[in-house]
Every structure is written in structure tokens, then in C-alpha cells.
Amino acid sequence: MTTILFFEQLLNGLQFGVMLFLMAAGLTLIFGVMGLINLAHGSLYMVGAFAAAAVAGWTGSFALALVASLAAAAMFGAIIELTIIRRLYARDHLDQVLATFALILIFSEATRWVFGSFPLFLNVPDALSGTVMLPGGIQYSLYRLTIIVIGLIVAAGLFLLISKTRVGMRIRAGENDREMIGALGVDISVLYTLVFALGAALAGLSGALVGAIQSVEVGMGEPVLILAFVVIVIGGIGSIKGALAGAILVGVTDTMGRTLLPILFGTFMEASSATAVGSALASMAIYILMAGVLLYKPTGLFGEA
Amino acid sequence: MAEAILSVSDIHKSFGALKASDGISLDLFPGEIHALIGPNGAGKSTLIKQIAGGLKPDSGRVHFCGQDVTTLNVPERARMGLARTFQISALAMSFTVLENVMLGCVGEARGVFSFFRPVMTHPGLLKRAHAALDRVALRDFADVTTSELSHGQRRQLEVAVALTLNPTAFLMDEPMAGLGAEGSKALTDLLAELKQEAPILLVEHDMDAVFALADRISVLVYGKIIATGSVDDIRSNADVRSAYLGEEDEA
Amino acid sequence: MLPERLLNAVILLTLLAVPLAALALDEPFIITLATKVTILALAGVGLNLALGQGGLVSFGHAAYFGLGGYAMGILASHAQSFTPLMEVPFLIEGTKSMPVIWITAIIVSSLAALLIGALSLRTSGVYFIMVTLAFGQMFYYFAISWPAYGGEDGLSIYVRNGFPGLNTLVPIQFFGICFVLLCVVLFFVSRLNRSAFGLALDGAHQHSERALTVGININRVRLVAFVISGGITGLAGALFADLNRFVSPTMFSWHTSGEIMIFIILGGVARICGPIAGAAAYIILEHYLGDVSEYWQVYLGFILLFVVLFAKGGIVGALTGSRGKAHG
Fold first, then answer.
1. Is residue A70 part of a domain?
2. Within this chain, do residues B63 and B180 fall inside the same structural domain, yes or no?
């Protein structure tokens, strides 16, 4: 186990965490402002990835592909918000879960119908392929590094949006007092559509960025959705800061666990069973982390009591 | 004087900079109605929650039946006979009236973990439940769904549920709220009767009811009790007049 | 409009009559479908206790369904390869006996429900949904990455397990076993709903503060309900594995949790026979829409949306003309 491998995995974990943050931030914002649990958030991630793959296929431009992922996810987000989601704000969580689960079925099957069952591929653009030399002699993928930077920029942008702008003020007011914001003459239904579309766009961007590393296929959003839930439970619901901390914690734990646990078990077990036990345990690591947080603070690290 | 059934000693509770309870001490003696009054935001509900067990004080102790109950939770204190009624009716709305009272009987009998025997035909519990409904004149409404009751009837049902607990003390949060003159009168009579069985700590805005019923009154302002005494003491207390009675219209 | 009691009888008799008619008409596939409905309904009855009566929206019941399935798979695979499950500290052998498998499935899934429930019930509302979903997914990933019992490929059992005195490979006999088990569990659950425990569970669902102030420890009540609920769903998992003679991580997938929830919402939340009606509707849809289009889940999605948005009572609610309440 070399130090270089360790830092490389740490960066991979950070990159994974940043992606999870883009998902979790939208989910937590939508929950915080509208009180809605949206399972279809993973579908919007998938929409973003497919839009990017399709546009990259037609135009060959990665930049256009990213724009398409943002636009498509935001558009589909706004459409489902206007037609279905807004009927759910006043409903209980069970209704929200079931209706958004129904949306997953519809999105997945419709995507399969349009694009077929075979995965699409989105290539890393030439300008971002290859590796860079980081201080300390670590060769690291330029594309993954770019993802980390984009994610951190988005995180900073979200903090600024929420703490410094008028829209952000409205979002914070909406979290605290729905009636008050209505009384202030802010058109709350427009605000809700905007917040939902913003969350959707973040999910779509995340899907497109990851799509260039993994394959673009139906159902790709679901594992990420569930990890984003773990992130929110750990970080505390409704908190962007919590989403960021939780996302990086989950990303790093998962990635490091998958690399380190088999090696760790290899020090006292024979190789093949060490790999088996290590990777099986690694697949549970983040859930054990979540269980630990639940024991320590059931409302999450940054959640309100 | 007899020993206090319920006593709160030097309770402190802060939320950030707000001192909701700032060194409150309070006693409830057998046979009395002790009214707790104070303007809105004085910290009455925070105090009630700490007495009932839903909120832990930052410091100070709560004693009930001679036992330190500060660390006990709501159901544990309820099982000792601390019977609480709520300002906004806390009832299972799709239960029948009888089912709501039976819920109390089940809790009191510690009979929750009975899985096979139909509860609504249990003779012992039914007898208790009917007796409680008789006390508040709701026997004829036993099979009515609770959501169909009038506001006044719901208040009566709250008291009936409290009665099933075999109470050693009542904790009543604005039982008169929203009642008309007639309903208020009926409930006042009932409370005067109940205090012989178990003393009542009464939080109430209806001053006529308080002055008619209370044996002692404590006045809570900004988390502190500024005066405790008989009805006449409180009526003539200058501090109280300026701090609270003068603002009665606003409260 | 039918009284719910009569409707329940109609639902159960229909579930019994269809495979008998199929037997007379020599249509074994219909019998297998009816068996599938019966088993999935049993899983739904389990979840309904937590979700309908208790208001605990668990999105992780696939965990118990899958554990029940793997309890069967692991015991039967050791029996079919004649290797003991473990030898130290004491010998445990595999088995092909259904009753032993059922009891094991119930115990294992109840224990998992106890652990997950104790952690999840520290939270409520939307947290509870996310936490149960996540723990359910943990089992899924574990089953995929643990190679001993087939990993991602699952585990095949060549001969259906046995029940004393019956030939379980005859479809109608296996249906009979499942149907009797469903009736026994329904009887138990309907008694439970009318017991003091059922009253407390429902009371805690409707108004938790009320239940607390009459001295009911609602966390303990909910945990016990959650454990019973998980145990029933685990039993259904063991039967489902026996029906297919196959277990795979798919049983743990969150889609399975979603499907069990769909049975309940289609049939009617907190209705005693709701899950039967819902599971039947689901299997009929899957079977006929599946013939119409490869993408039948699109239609399922729209039907589910319609029921959630406009027809909350589900099938039982529509037929009895009431939104009903949890007990009675």
C-alpha cells in the first residue's frame, strides 16, 4: 500500500463525494423548501446523462453536452413539478414516495423505449483526457480533477445563492414560514417550480459528468439516489452544509473502503477470501457509518433537533 | 401542611438567548387547584412540558409523589398517575369516543402487549372506560367517531381520558379554551369536584374561571414566577397588576 | 357498495376458487400465478401492519423478503449438497423441510427487523423512509458482493422443499400450503388489530402525543409491530423462493420494496385484505400488459399515479365506498 495509491483513492473518494453532493443538494433543497421527498431525482440524473450523451453524439461537443444535460433535466423537472409534483406538497410522505416511485417507472421505461436497452457512451473530451502531475508526484486523471473543481464551484455558488441573493432569501423564508412568504406577495408557486428545476439541473449535471466515466444506461440514477439519501441522513435534512459534509464523508468512506478493506484483510487472511470478505464489508461501510450517526445524532450532523 | 404531590424546584431552561424557565419553583398540594397564569410567551407551555416529561430542564428537579422524576419520560410519568390534558384536543380523531378512552385504560393497565384478546370487549377495561365517560356525561356518545364531536365534547373527552389514568395529579392546559359560557360552567363544576380526588395544576386564560376555581395562583412572566398566593393576594398585588392583569386584553 | 367484511370473504374465496377452477380446466400456469399472488399478498400483509396500522412508511421491506428467501436458499442448498452449514461450535445441517425453513426465515427476518427498527425508529417522517430504504439496500449490495451463495447470480434449488404428507411439486398442493399460511396470518393480524396492542399502535399512529400521555411507550409498541411485520414478510420471502426454486439479490432490491408497497396502495392502505386485492391486480397487470407491451411498467406507473392522486382508498376503498380506518 503506497502513499500515492492512498492519495489517489482519497481523490477518487472526493470526486465521488462531490458528485453525490450535486444530487443531495437538490434533494435536500427540495425537501427543505417544499417538504417533498422526491424519489424521481435519480431519474433526472439519468435524463441529464442521456441528454448529454445524445447531444455529444450529434455535435461532438462536450460543452454543449453539459449545457444540454442542465437544460433537459431542468425542463423535465419543471414539467413534472407543474403537472404532478405540486399536487403532492400537501400530501403525506407515503403519497409522495409512491407518486414519485411511479414517476421512476415512467421515466425508466420511456427512456428504454426511446434509447433502447443498450448503454450509451459519453467520451471524456480530448482537452480533459490524460493525467496531470500533482504535488507529491501523484499522477491523477485531469477529468476527475475537473469534476472535483466543478463540484466545489457549484457548492460555493449554492452557498452564495442561498445566503446572499434575493432568491436565496425567499428560499430561506420558504423553509421557515410558507404562509409568511405568501403574504409578502412572493409568488410561491413560481418559486417552487424554480427550486425544483434548479435541483433537477444539478442532478442532470451530475449525471452527465459521471456519464463520461461510467456508461449511460437506464436505472443508473437509482444507486446514486439511495446514496444521496444516506448523505442526507448523515448530514441532516434541509442543510446544504450538511449535504456537502455528508457527501464527502460517504464518497471517501465508500471509495477507501473498497480499496483498503481487502488489503487490510489480506494482512491476516489468504488472498481470495480476503478480497471476498473485504469487499463484502466495504459494500456495507457507508450504511454502518449511517447507523453510527443515527446512534450519535438522529437528526444528522448538521440537522436541527 | 401536607406534603406536596408535585413540586418543581429551581428549573432553568433556555433556548439560545431566550430564558424560557428562569429558576421556577412551584408546588401542588393535595386537594387544591393551583392556577398558573401569565401573558403569552411567558413560558407556560415550556414549563408544562418539563413537568409532563416531554422536555428536560437544563437544571433543577421535578418531584412527583415523593420521587425524583426529572429523568423519567412522558409515559413513565403518566403511568405514575400524572394526567395531562392539552390546549388543542389531543385525541385520535378516527377512533370512536370509547376507543379513545380505552386507549387510556390500556395505558393505565400496562396492558399494551396483549396481542390476541379483543380489547373492545374486555370487561374490566370497559367498566373503567364507561365510568370515565359517565363522569363527563359522554356515555351516550361512546360509539360516535371522535371527529364528529363538538368542540366542547372534545374537551370533555380529554378530561375523560385523563380520568382513566387513575390520576394522582392533573396537569390541565387551558381546558376552557374555546368553550361557551355554558360549557365553561359545566367544566368548572367538574374541576371543582375532581380536585378532591387529585389536585390540579391549571393553566388557564379564562380569568373568571381562574378566580372562581383556584385555591392558589402563580403568575409567570418572562420565565419567572413573580407572585404566588391566594386569589385575593394576586388580585391586590401591584406587580401582577402592572405585569399581567393590565395586559389582560392583549393576552 | 359492499360491507368490508363481505368483501374480504369474496376476495379470499375468489383467491381459492380461481386455482381450483384452473385445476379442473387443466391450466397449471394459472395455479402458479394464483400461488404467486398469495405469497406476494402475504408479504403485503406484513408490510401493511407497519405501514397501514402503524403509519411506519418502511421502504426497506425487501430486506426481510430477501432474508426469508436466502434462509430458504442457504438451508436447502446445504441439504442438496450434503454439506453442513457449520460444524463449530455446534453442527447445523441444511434442510429441505418447509416448516423448519419457515421458522428459520421468520426468526432471521424478525431479528433483522429488530436491529433495523431499533435504529430507524430513532427517526421519523421522511428520515424514516430514507433510513429504511438505505438499510434495505445494504442487504442488496451485501448479497451481490458475498460470493459464497451465488453472489450476483443467485442460487438455484433443484427440487422444491418438502412438507410432511404432501407432494409440494404438484402446483395445487403448494398453492394450498401458501393459501392456508395466508389465512392463518390474516387471522392472527386481524386479531392483533383488534387487541390492546392494535389499539395502541393505531393510537400512536393517529396521535403520538396522546398515546404517550396515557403511559404508552410508543417506541416499544412500534418496534414490536415492526418486528412482527418483518417476520411475516420474511415468511413470504421463503415461500417466494420456494415457488421459483431460486433466490437472487433481486429479492433485496429496492424495487421489491416498492412493489410490496404498491400492492398495499392498489388494494387499500390498512385494509386487512387490501394486499390480496393489490397483489392480484399487480400480477394481472403484469401478465396482460406484459403481453401488450414490453414496456408495461409505463402503464403501471400511470395507474399508480392515478391511484395515489385520485383514488386513495384503492380497490377495497372503491368497492366498499368508504375511506375506512385501520381497524374493525
1. yes
2. yes
pLDDT confidence of residue A181: 60
**Residues of chain C contacting residue B89, judged by C-beta atoms under 8 Å apart:** none
B86 found inside a domain: no
pLDDT range class, residue A174, cuts 50, 70, 90: low
Based on the fold, state whether residues B220 and B96 are members of the same structural domain.
no
Gap between the Cα atoms of A247 and A16, Å rounded: 8
Put simply, the answer to whether A113 touches C258 (Cβ < 8 Å) is no
Scan for cell 465521488, then name that residue. A16
Cβ atoms within 10 Å of A213's Cβ, excluding its own: 15
The parent domain of residue B28 ranges over 1-81+169-251
Min distance C209 CA to chain B CA atoms (Å): 7
Instruction: Assess whether B8 and B23 both reside in one domain.
Output: yes
Domains and CATH numbers, chain C: 4-320 (1.10.3470)
| Contact: chain B with chain A (3+ CB pairs below 8 Å) | no
A98 CB within 8 Å of a chain C CB: yes
Residue with the larger pLDDT of the pair C62 and A189: C62
Average pLDDT of every residue of chain A = 88
C323 to chain B, any CB pair closer than 8 A? The answer is no
B97 and B123, same domain (yes or no): yes
Instruction: Provide the shortest C-alpha distance from residue C248 to chain A (in Å).
Output: 16
Q: What is the pLDDT of residue C327?
A: 37
CATH (domain of B234):
3.40.50.300
Which of A97, A218, A231, A277 is the best residue to mutate to test the C interface, defined by the most C CB atoms within 10 Å of its own CB? A97
- State the Cα–Cα distance between residues C65 and C238, nearest whole angstrom: 8
Each residue of A88-137: pLDDT tens digit? 988 889 999 999 999 999 999 999 999 988 888 888 887 888 888 878 77
- Does the beta-carbon distance from C196 to B114 stay under 8 Å? yes
B129 and C CB contact within 8 Å: no
ipTM score for this prediction: 0.90
Whole-angstrom distance, CA of residue A246 vs CA of residue A27: 13
What is residue B96's DSSP assignment? B
Length of chain A: 305
What grid cell was written down for C189? Answer: 393480524
Q: Is residue A300 domain-resident?
A: no
How many domains does chain A divide into? Answer: 1
Query: Does residue B125 share a domain with residue B241?
Result: no
Average pLDDT over residues C102-127: 95
Confidence of residue B250 (pLDDT cuts 50, 70, 90): very low
* pTM, full prediction: 0.92
Please report whether residue A10 resides in a domain. yes
Contact A151, A21 (CB under 8 A): yes
- How close is the nearest chain C Cα to the Cα of A166, in Å? 28
Same domain, B97 and B119: yes
Residue A148 domain boundaries: 3-218
Contact C214 B122 (CB under 8 A): no
User: Do C304 and A37 make contact, defined as CB atoms within 8 angstroms?
Assistant: no
pLDDT tens digits for range A40-68: 999 999 999 999 999 998 998 889 999 99
Alpha-carbon span A112 to A152, nearest angstrom: 33
Number of domains in chain B: 2
Which residue among C59, C123, C142 places its CB closest to the CB of A97? Answer: C59
Q: Is the pLDDT of residue C267 over 60?
A: yes
B67 and B39 assigned to the same domain: yes
Residue with cell 428504454: A112
Shared-domain flag, residues B77 and B95: no
> For residue C141, what are the contacts with CB-CB under 8 A and spacing of at least 6?
A283, A284
CB pair distance less than 8 Å for A229 and C134:
yes
